Amino acid sequence: xxSLVMALSIFSQQDEAAATAALDQFKxxxxxxxxxxxxxxxxxLAGTQHDKVYAKxxxxxxxxxxxxxxxxAKGLGGAKPENAKKPMMHLLNGIxxxxxxxxxxxxxxxxxxxxxxxxxxxxxxxHLKAKNLPEGKAAVEAVGEIKSRxxxxxxxxxxxxxxxxxxxxxxxxxxxGGKGNLPGQGGGGVVDQDARDRDKVLTPIxxxxxxxxxxxxxxxxxxxxxxxxETGGRGKAEK
Length: 239
Description:
By secondary structure, the chain is mainly α. The chain has two domains: 18-124, no CATH class; 147-169 and 189-239, no CATH class. 63% of the residues lie in helices and 0% in strands. The protein is elongated, with a radius of gyration of 23 Å.
């Protein structure tokens, strides 16, 4: 027993020393003038698994160029499963400061998916209906990585949202060119092309995620809704 305690103490000291050395090296490497050089320094630092390193990576999510923040997010997403809780919290805390940087938020969501922590799902699901495609796609794929049946209602609701958004807006008096404000006859309803792009890209991914979670082969939004209403999401997979 004593030998085990001593061995654990030695390993802890070695981990501490490795983290200190990695952080010292990082201080030097991070002085690079180019963002690419600083991002490379962040990626190298992330190769050392330690709470002090996670804390440093977490702090980097709040400043510097997007390229550097994305590298920090990826580094946190590479944490080992047994160490995932603290990196998860750093990533969650990094979303708000990056609200105006969709690519950084997308990288954070991707990293959360790789950590596979179900506790992150409430935040990830908030981004499923993001108007920008990279963020929404990252959220769907992160949910797919975590693979929890608790996400089924949000995913099925997302299918309806995508479908409805891709439809033409109601037409107004004058049809194809009138400026009236009453419903009228004719073609030419307003089209939200971004919404159509989201539907085209995300809907197939959402179906794949739903199929992966449930084991079912359903490929229709209405059938998913009917199945969930009947089973509460606990139906048996098809043979």
